[in-house]
Design brief:
The protein is built from 23 helices and 68 strands. By secondary structure, the chain is of the alpha+beta class. Strands 1, 2, 3, 4, 5, 6, 7 and 8 form an eight-stranded antiparallel β-sheet that branches. Strands 20, 21, 22, 24 and 25 form a five-stranded antiparallel β-sheet that branches. The protein has a five-stranded mixed β-sheet with strand order 57-58-51-54-59, with no helix packed on it. A hairpin with a 2-residue loop joins strand 52 and strand 53 (1035-1039). The model is unreliable at 1-50, 65-69, 71-100, 814-855, 1130-1268 and 1399-1411 (pLDDT under 50).
Length: 1411
């Protein structure tokens, strides 16, 4: 027994965290010598700890035996089955059941009672034989046989009894699972017990109800009394019970059918019928006073009830052993009654006979009870709390912090425009708890609102009803989303949860929420267990009880109520009660965010007049309740009024980092390569869809591919980077069909979860990438089916954590390490390694030596904060704080190297908006990336009004903006439109970009066609009439003029063509011999490899022609200027300033500049000399073969930072350290035009000829530093005619017209010339207000169709300052422009009239200069 006591003591120590003193029962006590000589039968563990414990226990037993009281119960004993028969796996447990031990080595088929009996039959004859051989007599044999027979008889009897019990038990189990049990024994008991208990129950009900009615009697009534109450003589019945045995061990689950039908007399005996009394309730209302008063009875008779209920009991080991009881109705109950409001027994009429009233009352009853206790809703009774004197059933047991982030894809109910959604939040069918703000004209609203919901249990459902706000009619429902609070039991904090919005059983969008449950903290026992210590927290629930008041008025007829306010906000209003001593008996729970500052105000109000008030701090109210001070004096009353009020504090632990308003920093980026699609859904009637893909995340669009015209198997091969901040995020790829006029139509969607590609490391140590994903994902359609597939690749790249260096003050402290980590999620603590070496200096000043020589060992994936800008790629965290504007209802759009915004804020109606929103934008190349912020005013018109812009180089922002943020001027042209407050962070991402992703992969290629040599003679006279056609990716971009009768033509023609990818784009040309009557004959083809050319600088090529004799060559001089090119097909304001129009550019605003390529613009302003020094060298760019001149611009070696970088960065205004708006003089900054001879033109052409080949909407509006900058004035455009147009009608002709536009603005639309391929228009228009900034005019020739859409015949983009050169005195030009697309030429003439008072072109202004 000492060993057993030791084991119990050790088990108790493991369970309770302390070491009890073991002892032995009285009957096991022995002298010290016997105990000392005893040997433990328990084997020793490998580490020897158990043997030591046994020895210690023996010594303690010897020590305590002397003082042990005889007959006393031992301190540690095995009581009950749980302790006495508890089995622990392993052979060292002495309580181990030996049969169970044997069953581990032998199955029941090999070890059991059957084999025992068989063994007995074998052993008995063998034993008889052995005894007989050894000389035993017949007596011995008889005894052995008698023993064996007795054993066999008992064993067989036990075996049969156990088998019979097993069979009966299994049959009962099956019956319980499939059938219901009759309960006549319960009904027999109830029928007899009811006659005894019903009078007592009725008396108790009358006493309780009468007490309440006396207090609640209105002043105009004399009294209200419950004069009669009886439930009759027939007892309730339990019709059947069905139990569910397959539940958890501590759960009892049963279905009960109950009925209370006292008017049903079929099963009653004659004796019971003679004494039967039906249920009856009589409420007497007395009107008037004294003898003139009269009583009016209200009768309720013949009540009946039938219901099918489910009970779920949760058991526990402590008293009262039933923790909770959950019950609900599995189906709506049947309730019947007879109600006679007037007339009494004699003349009363049952109101159920009134048509429609009975069904109305029944429906209202179900509507009230349904959310409370109709399945799947359950009503919970906390028996533990009730039996132990806890709070009431309605008392709050915790809080749920519920945040609604945003919704997406809501159903539109408006005929014109979009819905104005808002959300009502409630629990079940209860009154609404909160209402969000209304978001106007959007189907993807963003709320970001947090509410605190007090709950008494988690068996509730949060209902989010979404409505469309209507100022005239009733608000229309858009659907409802539900969130089950039961899920918070296993995962108390759930973020980024998407709840489906359903209406009429159909999905109508989704709502993204965050829910966090924080229970009330119960007091914890002290170390010695003698007292309970409350948990300290500044957040919690204040339970206030307004019991009653006394002497508040001089007359007893005054009606009064109480209003309770928390920090000036009314949180509760009691009901009106009459008398000078009203007993409200009102309980309320309020959530307090700051207990120290909470103030409670209680006002007693009568007839809208405050007749008394009591103001107290929450802490004092709690302390008064603890000190049993319940009554408080009212101030301002008519007499000495007092109020009985108590307050109980329920602490709730909510960490500061639990606030959903705190921005969660991104922990990495996901690289999405949208490859292609196949078998895309076709929604066009007379052609094929024009598909493109939009990538959307939580709140906004993250990326958009280019549009592929008329192709059901498109190939995009575009790369996007999306920042991610949560493992629960999902990103959606939705394919659309581009429409020029109407809204784009969806072609299907698919999505992926962040958890598919990202793995969270243990202990929140960070995030790691899972294997890259490449898949063909089916596109889900609106009807639930699938049509088409998208091919994409995914890979994850985590961001680096930052460790901040210690300040000088921290370094002065010996205990502070040299670096401390920034408070970022997953940041590991910095380990310090002392590398101090003993030296005389260290001995003299050990403090400074220790600090200076302390080296910090950073965890993996962590760098110093000052090293962040050494990484080219990373995540820009832009905090949009607020603004000071001249207009209201504004929002912001953020652009970084894209013609689609990466972030869009919510509109704010104030002129001083406080957005407090955060944008996470991936930066590919920090050195050249540029941030453009458009501030717009929300308008009811088609396009929102642009207020102004903020443009800045991102590296400059990060280097100059204070950590607390700064203010930046919002500019519209040169006008100051306000200021915006921003704050920035940068999270580096170590990633290697592919060559085609870099900014220097995109730009404009300027081609100077100089000459051709030694061409093939195609004519009989030994000459040719050569002209050259240039193509990009097979599309014609330029056609030279024809040089007659020569084999060595001189062209000296220039043209500019946009190159979207130097890696992928193919530039080819073909030389033709022109023939007037027959088709042109090819003289050879050639191509340019753009991957190996120098950037910015001229490249001379002599390209040999490929033909049968490999004869001839073409001499070219090309220059590639990297810049961002728009890929947008829609004419939006974003594409206007980035790459398609001139609304903003033409009016003086340089918004994007060199597509983020800051160094390029500086070349023309004085950097040419440095560039020229490295022309002969060979750089080490990503394409190879890029010159050192490009390296000087920072295009290759981006990791090397020099002091000369400032001269190569973007020529944008750099704000001072105060980040305040500058004066106009300070804002002027420009790039001087180049005076270098590094030009593409080798000499003037006899006939100046310049054409700009382009692909529609792909021409950037921002020019390189060599482009001419003009001056202010008015422009006259003449559209004269065209020739060589393509015939697209059935007759072989076309009906052409010309549309001239500048950005999104149409300047001129000519008349339609019917059936003409060489039309003459001779129409003109005047464009006033031209500034000296770059301007591009778009000339689009189209074929007019009366039925169907017009067709494009070709287009031409005119760069104004390439034709109008004020510095050279050239103010007009007349020329033929080659149309891109299907060919043809356009005859144009332009004339420019300088503004009076201008320089006349004598002085060139820089790209960023202001007038």
């Amino acid at each position: 027994m000492p060993v057993a006591a030791t084991l119990d003591a050790k088990k108790a120590e493991q369970t309770n965290g302390k070491k009890p003193t073991p002892s032995v029962p009285q009957q096991e006590q022995a002298p010290p010598s016997s105990v000392k000589d005893a040997k433990s039968p328990v084997p020793t563990k490998e580490n020897g700890t158990l043997e030591k414990d046994v020895a210690t226990a023996k010594a303690n037993i010897v020590k305590d035996i002397k003082s042990h009281i005889p007959g006393a119960f031992p301190v540690v004993a095995r009581i009950g089955w749980l302790d006495a028969y508890k089995r622990i796996d392993g052979p060292n447990n002495e309580f181990r059941d030996k049969s169970i031990w044997m069953e581990e080595f032998a199955s029941s088929a090999l070890f059991g009672a059957f084999w025992h009996n068989a063994a007995a039959l074998f052993v008995i004859p063998v034993a008889c034989y052995v005894v007989f051989k050894l000389g035993g007599g017949f007596v011995s044999l008889i005894l052995i046989i008698a023993f064996g027979a007795t054993y066999y008889k008992n064993s067989i009897r036990r075996f049969r009894r156990n088998a019979r019990d097993d069979i009966t038990r299994e049959l009962i189990k099956n019956a319980i699972e499939n059938d219901v049990e009759t309960t006549e024994w319960i009904n027999n008991f109830l029928s007899k017990f009811w006659l005894i208990y019903e009078p007592i129950l009725s008396e108790s009900v009358v006493q309780i109800v009468d007490g309440i009615l006396v207090d609640q009697t209105p002043a105009f009534l004399d009294s209200i009394r419950l004069t009669t109450f009886t439930l009759g003589t027939k007892a309730p019945r339990v019709e059947s019970i069905k139990a569910f045995p397959k539940t958890d061990p501590d759960v009892v689950l049963m279905d009960w059918r109950l009925s209370f039908t006292p008017t049903d007399i079929e099963d009653m005996t004659p004796r019971q019928l003679r004494t039967q009394i039906n249920p009856k309730i009589c409420l007497t209302i007395r009107v008037g006073k004294g003898i003139i008063g009269a009583g009016m009875p209200i009768l309720v008779e013949d009540m009946s009830f039938k219901g099918h209920m489910r009970f779920k009991l949760k058991l526990m080991s402590n008293f009262p052993h039933i923790k909770t009881v959950d019950f609900c109705f599995l189906e709506p109950p049947e309730i019947d009654y007879v109600l006679k409001p007037v007339g009494g027994d004699t003349f009363g009429m049952d109101i159920a006979h009134i048509p429609g009233l009975q069904s109305f009352i029944r429906d209202q009853t179900h509507a009230i009870l349904g959310p409370m206790m109709y399945a799947p809703n359950v009503y919970t009774l906390d028996m533990e709390q009730m039996m132990t004197g806890g709070a009431s059933l309605t008392a709050a047991a915790g809080v749920v912090q519920f945040t609604i982030y945003n919704a997406k894809d809501l159903k539109n109910t408006e005929l014109v425009g979009n819905s104005d959604p808002y959300v009502k939040i409630r629990l079940g069918n209860r009154p609404e708890l909160a209402t969000t703000a209304v978001k106007e004209d959007t189907l993807n609203p963003v709320w970001n609102e947090t509410n605190i919901i007090l709950v008494n249990n988690l068996n509730e459902v949060v209902c989010m009803e979404i409505f469309d706000k209507d100022n005239v009619r009733k608000d229309r429902p858009l659907g409802q989303a539900n969130f089950d609070l039961k899920t918070l039991e296993e995962e108390p904090i759930q973020d980024d949860v998407w709840c489906k919005v359903l209406r009429n059983g159909k999905e109508r969008g989704a709502v993204r929420i965050r829910a966090a449950y924080f229970p009330v903290q119960a007091p914890q026992p002290s170390a010695d267990g003698t007292e309970m210590i409350p948990v300290e927290s500044n957040h919690g629930i204040l339970a206030i009880n307004l019991a009653q008041a006394k002497d508040i008025t001089r007359t007893g007829k005054t009606k009064s109520l109480c209003k309770v306010s928390l920090n000036g906000r009314v949180v509760h209003t009691t009901k009106n009660m009459s008398g000078a001593n009203p007993a409200w008996g009102s309980d309320l729970d309020v959530f307090v965010t700051d207990l120290e500052a909470a103030q409670i105000l209680v006002e007693v109000i009568s007839d809208s007049r405050v007749i008394g008030s009591y103001k107290v701090s929450a802490k004092k109210l709690i302390q008064d309740t603890t000190d049993k001070v319940d009554w408080a004096s009212l101030q301002g009353g008519e007499g000495t009024g007092k109020l009985k009020i108590t307050g109980v504090w329920k602490p709730v632990l909510m960490g500061d980092d639990m606030s959903p308003s705190v921005h969660k920093p991104a922990f990495g980026v996901i690289r999405v390569q949208m490859m292609a699609g196949r078998d895309i859904k076709n929604v066009e009637i007379g052609g094929s869809s024009d598909p493109y893909v939009v990538i959307t995340g939580d709140k906004s669009v993250r990326g958009r591919t280019k549009v592929i015209d008329s192709n059901l198997n498109p190939v995009w091969d575009e790369i996007f980077y999306v920042a991610t901040s949560s493992m629960k995020q999902t990103f959606e790829f939705e394919c659309f069909d581009f429409q020029k006029v109407t809204k784009d139509r969806t072609l299907g969607r698919t999505e992926f979860s962040v958890s598919e590609i990202v793995e969270e490391l243990p202990d929140k140590a960070g995030y790691a990438a899972r294997p890259a994903i490449e898949r063909w994902a089916p596109l889900k359609q609106k009807d639930g089916g699938t049509k088409g597939e998208l091919h994409y690749k995914l890979s994850f790249h985590p961001s680096l954590k930052l460790a901040q260096e210690a300040t000088k003050a921290e370094k002065a402290n010996v205990g502070v390490p040299a670096v401390v980590p920034v408070a970022l999620p997953g940041t590991a603590p910095v380990e310090t390694v002392d590398t101090t070496k003993p030296s005389p200096q260290n001995l003299e000043n050990p403090v400074s030596a220790a600090v200076e020589t302390t080296a910090a060992t950073l965890p993996p994936g962590t760098i110093y904060a000052h090293e962040a800008l050494d990484y080219d790629s990373g995540i820009l965290v832009a905090h949009l704080i607020g603004a000071d504007l001249e207009r209201s209802n504004t929002y912001c759009e953020f652009y970084v190297d894209s013609d689609h915004y990466q972030f869009k804020s919510e509109p704010q109606k104030s002129r001083n908006p406080k957005w407090n929103e955060v944008a996470d934008i991936f930066i590919k190349e920090l050195e050249y990336a540029k941030l453009v912020i458009l501030v717009k005013e929300k308008s009811s018109l088609e396009k929102d009004l642009l207020i102004g812009t903020v443009t800045q180089n991102i590296r400059t922002l990060l280097e100059t903006t204070p950590a607390a943020g700064g203010r930046f001027p919002i500019l519209d042209k040169t006008d100051h439109r306000g200021s915006i407050q921003l704050k920035f962070e940068y999270l580096p991402v170590p990633i290697e970009l592919m060559p085609k992703e870099r900014l220097d992969n995109m730009g404009n290629l300027t081609v100077n066609l100089m000459r051709a040599k030694n061409l093939i003679a195609a004519d009989r006279g030994g000459f040719s009439d050569p002209y050259i056609v240039f193509k990009v990716n097979g599309k014609e971009v330029h056609k030279s003029e024809v040089i007659k009768k020569t084999l060595n033509p001189e062209y000296n023609e220039n043209f500019v063509v946009p190159i979207t990818s130097r890696v992928d784009d193919q530039v080819t040309f073909e030389v033709f011999d022109w023939n007037q009557l027959s088709t042109a004959k090819s003289l050879g083809v050639g191509s340019l490899d753009l991957r190996n050319i120098q950037l910015v600088l001229p490249n001379d090529f002599s390209v040999p022609l490929k033909n049968k004799s490999n004869q001839g060559e073409v001499q070219l001089r090309v220059k590639f200027m990297p810049e961002f090119l728009s890929s947008s097909k829609k004419s939006s304001l974003a594409s206007t300033f980035i790459g398609g129009g001139a609304n903003i550019v033409s009016s003086g605003g340089n918004l994007i500049g060199q597509a983020g390529l800051a160094g390029v613009g500086a070349v023309s302003g004085g950097g040419v000399g440095s560039v020229g020094k490295g022309v002969g060298a060979v750089g080490k760019g990503v394409f190879g073969g890029i010159s050192a001149g490009a390296s000087a611009l920072g295009l290759n070696n981006r990791k090397e930072r020099s002091d000369t970088r400032s001269s190569l960065e973007a020529p944008v205004p750099i704000l001072p350290s105060t980040m305040m708006p500058q004066s106009p003089e300070q804002k002027q900054a420009g790039v001087q035009s180049s005076s270098s001879t590094a030009s593409l033109n080798v000499g003037p052409s006899p006939v100046p000829r310049t054409s700009i080949g382009s692909v529609r909407s792909h021409t950037s509006m921002v020019f390189d530093g060599d482009d001419i900058v003009g001056e202010p004035g008015n422009l006259t455009i003449h559209v004269i005619g065209a020739d060589g147009l393509q015939g697209v009608d059935k007759s072989g002709t076309s009906d052409p017209y010309v549309k001239v536009s500048m950005g999104a603005k149409t300047l001129l639309k000519t008349k339609v010339r019917k059936e003409n391929l060489s039309p003459v228009w001779d129409e003109s228009t005047v464009v006033p207000g031209i500034t000296g900034h770059p301007v591009t005019l778009n000339f689009l020739v189209r074929d007019h169709n009366t039925i169907g859409s017009d067709k494009d015949l070709g287009e031409f983009d005119l760069r104004l300052w390439s034709h109008i050169r004020p510095s050279e005195g050239v103010y007009k030009d007349d020329f033929w422009a080659t149309l891109s697309g299907s060919g043809g030429r356009l005859h144009l003439a332009i004339e420019f009239e300088p503004q009076e008072g201008s320089d006349g072109g004598k002085q060139k202004r820089g790209l960023f200069s202001r007038k």
